[in-house]
């Protein structure tokens, strides 16, 4: 193992809260992604960084707020904890997991009663925290759902509103009685553009949906007061100023006229992006603009003056999302959510920051150029490393799959001028897609759900057939409809699906398919490696590994030493292609493997916590397989002498040579052959690679006329 260290430091501000910092000065508190996550305190007026507080055990968070007594609260992922600190304190207090088993704590709001309220994933719950008393589980907001990304509260009336995804629900919860009512407009229920950000201002409920559409609702009846406009900010200002509630739409500042119930653009004021935090300071509106550049702006409603500027949020080491090895031997990494791309030269150890693309969930080299499958729009991008990296130009976007209900392109394969792309569905949907992109024409075709209700998570070409592996999971917020992951075949000539198979009954996902060293199809289904005969589609062997399913990061790598390496659950297993036995090469700490041309396998770091979440993934690691004394070993299943099968199982010597490599019977004939085979067999017996009985069978085969 070689540790090449942190590959990128970058800025990802999930949300900001404008409040009061040290010495009573104005402050914006930003909760940021990092290893670990942090909260930064920045003075938005003087534009200076005042403090940075770590949130140990987290990778960032989607919720931040401040109580009347000055306490700052941050809700985090993937541990689902709530942290608190007073401005100026060196350390945050970990208050614990908001609800047992919940991994994300979202949308924090403070009520007039001093309690902190929020939502969770994956149980779609709401919770409250009372200082000195602790947490209260407010229950599942909608059974069968997973996300409660935001809440709003009116503690005078003891009411809480919960946005629920991904089927579209907006729950009004009476905190005193526990009564729940879904006030989401009937016409929008089931729409995957679900309620995402909530703000209760001046008795009106402002709702941003997950696709950017916005509504203003009566908070009790759900009656629509205004719609037909868009919002890209993290909700609105939390208070009205001069009769207006402010938000961003695209790159412009907008406002909602409370008296007229009408949204409108603020004339001549460009925000430059989406607001991720709002506050009024001496009558002037300030906003942080997300998520990656530390942008901000101010607007004075009294004079109409506005200004755009930068705030010094500190860059942090961020988890690597994906790794790929270029044909030139350089190693490319892409950051989770942030999307920054960096490239390492292993010979020098130098890391070059190329720039932001998007979160890349799958990538594929072809003819020296790189295809990127990106989230959240399912965009397919194309990058030429011989040209300068320029965001939005190189890599350039070829097309998007979000309009076809796909948000994560994760698998690639190619044959001739065609590139095949497997993807998984958008939030709230079932059924992935197989997309065919023709490089010659620039056209693409999308085949939805080649296997009903399943995503397409792995692809491999063998001969004139494309093999695809699936996952039973739908998009985020869904419950699987299928029970068994499948392998399907697709005829490259006709463009038609031919067959469907279940190689490992009960497996949830087939995350890797490769052509094995024996010419057969090898696949990874949860913790089982299966080997299929492509001529019959029969499973000829299964190898069960002592590791759990990790997700699409589980991989198979066929090494130049002919062994197959399986990486899953942080472990690496080395599988003998002859005996199909395995050894554990690495016990823990490795995720998202990619193999270079020399056979080294590159991983991001990671530590798995008690909840199964993986954190600490900012470092790039290289695993170098054992040296191989015999390149291109003969993998004939049994030892043969001049075509005569001895029945002796072929096997490896520890240095990587097989018995077939060592016998070298093809170099001799007649008496010389017999003498040579006898000598080699004796050496193999002495080395305890074969038994005396097996040696006799080998020599007998050599002696036959």
TrEMBL record:
SUPFAM superfamilies: Calcium-dependent phosphotriesterase, Quinoprotein alcohol dehydrogenase-like. InterPro entries: Quinoprotein_ADH-like_sf, Vgb, WD40/YVTN_repeat-like_dom_sf. This is Outer membrane protein assembly factor BamB. It comes from Nonomuraea insulae.
